[in-house]
Amino acid sequence: MTKTAIIFPGQGSQKVGMGLDLLDISKESKNTFNDAFNYLGEDYKTVCFEGPQEQLKKTQYAQPLIFLISAIIFNELKKKDITPSYIAGHSLGELTAYYASGVLDLESTLSIIKKRGELMAKAHPSEDSAMCAVIGSTEDTIKDCINETSIQPVVAANYNCPSQIVISGKKEGVNECKEKLVSRGAKCIDLPVSGAFHSPLMNSAAEGLSSFISDQSFNEAMYPIVLNRQAIPETNKHNLKENIALQVNSSVLWTKTIQFFEKENIDTLIEVGPGRVLSGLAKKTCSINTISINSAESLHEFCQNTSK
Which of 85, 198, 199, 250 is catalytic? Predict the structure, then answer.
């Protein structure tokens, strides 16, 4: 019997016009769009479908809109009785996994994502924050360079695949660490982000988020969610609630998440949402068959193939 895992993308997968082809794919998708834009505001609809790109890449717009597109595609997949053995999401995508697993409803997820984005945006001045993708180095070398960096904090924030780790922290510290890494043969690519995400500079965001969700109700997860900060599955509603704040300033252990799926004999990974970033990372990490569903066309093709 085929074992499937579904994964949801995070910030950086957005592009202007995403979701336009999903508007009329079903009555349910149209209603979900309307409900979301009624909650978020009409400006979110404009930014999503018309741009500009500069506005869409801002955290407060990108995060809820990426979630919305991912959620709509997932809801269509559910109609085809796609039952994953596990689900996971990269950073923001972890909250999409909460929604997909029934831990939170649409409005609750949107409210948390919106607040999360606001808190992360103001946690530390953007001009003093940086993130950088390190390619072609080792985990040990990166840790050594971080430890040798005089301006802190700088941390390994995203373990994306064996050949790519993202560092995050104070801008001067990240720049100093980059110099050390380049001198040891690594390639470093600055990321166009507005904050030092998944670092101690997000501590105030984590505290604010913990307070924000304190009175909200959570449900047990229908599908085990493999958490970013531990790379182990979780279904308990209390642990999932606690994890939301902890995840903001913890590292994303994505390589270990994909390796967990491999150990669990997952046959197919389905990336659900805009772009195909996670599919690319998975192919650099494991040999599991990977499918990207990011449009009405790819959704239709997948559903046709599974019904044969």
Answer: 198
- CATH class, domain 126-194, is alpha beta
**Residue 300 annotated to the active site:** no
Helical (H) or strand (E) element with 100: helix 93-100
CATH superfamily of 4-123+201-306: Malonyl-Coenzyme A Acyl Carrier Protein, domain 2 (3.40.366.10)
Tokens 């493999």 sit at which residue? 226
As annotated, the residues of the chain forming the CATH 3.40.366.10 domain(s) are 4-123+201-306
In the residue annotation, 91 being an active-site residue is answered as yes
**Contacts (Cβ under 8 Å, ≥6 apart) of 206:** 245, 246, 248, 249
Check 13, 91, 199, 279 and give the catalytic one.
91
Q: From the DSSP assignment, how many helices (H) and strands (E) are in the chain? A: 13, 10
**pLDDT string in tens for the chain (308-residue length):** 589 999 999 998 899 999 999 998 999 999 999 999 999 999 999 999 999 999 998 888 999 999 999 999 999 999 988 899 999 999 999 999 999 999 999 999 999 999 998 999 899 999 999 999 999 999 999 999 999 999 999 999 999 999 999 999 999 999 999 999 999 999 999 998 889 999 999 999 999 999 999 999 999 999 999 999 999 999 999 999 999 999 999 999 999 999 999 999 999 999 999 999 999 999 999 999 999 999 999 999 998 887 66
Q: Where in the chain is the domain with CATH 3.30.70.250?
A: 126-194
132 neighbors 115 (Cβ within 8 angstroms): no
Residue labelled with tokens 């192919």: 283
